[in-house]
Amino acid sequence: MEPGRKHRILIGSIGLDGHELGALIVSRALQDAGMEVVYLGLNQTPEQVVESAIQESVDIIGISSMSGIHVEALSDLLEVLEERRAKNISVIAGGIIPQEDFLVLEKLGVKKVFPSGTATSEIVSFIKKELPEKPEV
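RESULT FIELD:
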């Protein structure tokens, strides 16, 4: 992250997931915590998410998944990040993700999984710990 720059997080959903309330709540909490949020919304492809993340110079991609395709969608997303040589962008996920899939996702390269009902303060704290802000030079 550039010195003195706010954290930039892209929030979106891959596939035909039609639920966005949780993603909107998280987006607002991140904004309230002083972070810049790029909200892509629903029905994105992994390629669209990565392209937007690169264009917007984000630090983290947050994927909301409520449809049960999280392992496949995040695997595809991480593959596209690698193909585009953008592995420096961290990936987190949240939504209705069973506990037994957490380890699978973390082995794929997802930095953290936040199940449905996670306090937004926990997500904000994780991001601040994962990407500590650097003082302006």
